[in-house]
Write a structure and sequence with these properties.
Two copies of one chain form a homodimer.
Chain A (H helix, E strand, L loop, with lengths): L1 H13 L24 E5 L4 H12 L6 E6 L7 E4 L2 E4 L1 E2 L10 E4 L3 H13 L3 E4 L33 E4 L3 H17 L1 E10 L6 H15 L18 E2 L11 H13 L6 E8 L5 E10 L5 H9 L4 E3 L11 H4 L5 E8 L8 E9 L2 H15 L1
Parallel strand pairs in A: 1-2, 1-6, 2-5, 6-7, 7-8, 9-11, 13-14
Antiparallel strand pairs in A: 3-4, 9-12, 10-11, 12-15, 14-15
Chain lengths: 374, 374
């Protein structure tokens, strides 16, 4: 729980004061236990995303009959307070899923691969935040605002389990802004450059960024454990393994997941994924090429009306989205909406998107999927 | 001089230890006064770039008969030690350029506009680091490795002055890597996203980033003077004014300067310029579309042989350019060289480029122009 306490402390240090932001705050309504709610299990409950699952469930008044917090043996036995009740963290085993309706997984790909099918076998609907099943043709990959129809007939109380995959954070944040435009004018090609926060590599990476920053400011050598090189006051190509085509796995997720979510094998995507010394929200510079003209005013109008999207695009005051503005917020912010000068007619747009990596990029999206099941 | 001392101290804090980098270090040879050298004036001598002019002149053993340090009245009278000699900073006036062969300007656009023509009138060749004359059709805009021919017959000892403009930092860094490829396969379109350092906004911006970082880590409200919003652990759209087409001035420099330097009005460029919390080196994600196929192996070979460029592109060890690696270095580093999946055939490449903003992005490039005059 130390990492999570850390992440929360850091949030208070690094998030803007309320008066500075125009993003909608998530409504905080105390939820209560409900007999008619599903039984929920959280796998990886002590991690950054696991903790955010709890925040989001509470923020959104998600109904539940019971909640079970699962983690590795190392964390088992610790006590977590949630909505004024104390829960003992339980060790994840094959028996953990008996009677569980919804299992929210965020404990890494290998845990998902091992325990996801077991949970399904026991009748749970698994919403998996790892990359383990995302490209599995039988598993829906869902952003609720984008492709809820992909969930098909998956539901609760049908006596059988199912797997639903949560897309990668950078895909979710990009497609939250690109999809409303895609629906209007069909995206043919997308060139994405990311500015990714520490949180994508977990709470330990956030701690490392803070520690290194203190060290560098004190004139000391930075401690490099999570990343092999200095992160403070620096940036570097995403640490995911690089494939033989020269793309790293993070970039290929953007390419492949976009094609799957849009159900469009022909959409062309290229991406360059970079880690920047920011705590918990990603930014993305997105260049779009459309099948038919889409002028910037129409684009702004479309985005203004899009669910889960807020437009911050004031040229006169140079006010555009920043990672800090969206930190701990639900909405993805989009700005710098402009006609691409390098494309003829109105066939191209440039936009700049920011979204909270832990929230909409992971926990919130998963909980929204769970809400669709109710 | 405080800012400069600051920048140097911060350099020692924030630059990597020599063993960590594979970039060539500039050769440091003590130069001496030479009777046959030109007389040199530095306008804006106390600024970050002005101070870097001195470092670069010394590093490169630039011959000079005399050197004159010019600044505003506020700094006049201060003493600067340079190569074991003491120089009094002089106030910039119309008389400052009497007998000056080469004047290196970096004191902002309005100073250049006022005093550049005066210096030319007095017979000086002005190398101007501001944007004042860059788009003037009569003024060459020069990156010595890219378009030295644009300098035409400008030279010293011809009894008449001239103006040469130094391109903007992000243009220089981008084109150092893109031009060798452009020469081979002609770039038709370029999509650039930048990751720009504090130094581009001057030494005071670097100080603000450090101060804010300390404040945020101490749980205090960050002091915002240079920038209107929190910079520490954040990033934001470049602070240059935004034009009616939605691009900011920094982005339009990349568009327009590329067309001028390549002498190609038809090359299509779009750019999104973002400031990231890094001290003094820029990074750029560059997507290229060519007129004819260019495979990534050929591209790597071309870049390996390009002057002023170093290739850092080791996929197995995930070693690619970072701002820290190129800080205080002459070479621009390029990596992530890969065939763009979103373009058919071998007509597209993605690359990632890093270069020191103060050095190759400003002072070094200007001194290299001055060297061409000798």
């Amino acid at each position: 729980m130390q990492s999570s306490a850390y992440a929360h402390r850091l949030h208070s240090l690094l998030s803007p004061s309320p008066s500075r932001t125009q993003i909608r705050n998530p409504t905080r309504i105390r939820m209560s236990l409900r007999d008619d709610g599903p039984s929920v299990a959280i796998v990886g409950a002590t991690g950054a995303v696991g903790q955010e699952f709890l925040s989001v469930l509470s923020d959104r008044d998600f109904p539940y009959r019971s909640i079970k917090l699962l983690a590795s043996r190392r964390s088992a036995g610790k006590v977590q307070t949630f909505e004024d009740r104390s829960y003992k963290i339980e060790e994840l085993t094959a028996e953990s899923f008996d009677g569980v309706d919804i299992a929210l997984f965020s404990a890494g790909g290998s845990i998902s691969k091992e325990f996801g099918p077991i949970a399904v076998e026991k009748g749970s609907v698994v919403v998996d935040n790892s990359s383990a099943f995302r490209m599995d043709p039988g598993v829906p990959l869902v952003i609720p605002e984008v492709n809820p129809e992909a969930m098909g007939h998956i539901g609760l109380g049908k006596g059988k389990g199912a797997l639903i995959a949560n897309p990668n954070c950078s895909t979710i944040i990009c497609l939250m802004a690109a999809t409303p435009l895609h629906r209007y004018a069909k995206v043919l090609r997308m060139v994405v450059s990311t500015y990714q926060a520490a949180s994508g590599a977990g709470a330990a990476a956030m701690e490392e960024l803070e520690l290194q920053t203190r060290e560098v400011l004190d004139g000391k050598e930075p401690t490099c454990k999570i990343f092999k090189q200095q992160y403070a006051f620096n940036l570097f190509s995403h640490n995911a393994p690089v494939l033989s085509n020269g793309y790293n796995e993070e970039e290929m997720k953007l390419v492949k997941e976009t094609q799957k979510i849009w159900n469009d094998k022909d959409v062309k995507v290229t991406a360059t994924c970079i880690r920047v010394p920011v705590m918990r929200a990603h930014a993305e510079s997105v260049n779009l090429q459309f099948e038919k003209p889409l002028d910037e005013d129409t684009a702004r109008q479309i985005l203004n009306g899009a669910a889960g999207v807020v437009v911050i695009d004031d040229r006169a005051s140079n006010s555009f989205p920043t990672p800090l503005q969206v930190s701990n917020k639900d909405d993805v912010a989009v700005g710098r909406i402009r006609q691409d000068l390098s494309q003829d007619g109105n066939y191209g747009l440039d936009i700049f998107v920011c979204g909270d990596q832990i929230r909409k990029g992971a926990a919130l999206n998963a909980v929204q999927i769970a809400e669709k099941l109710l």
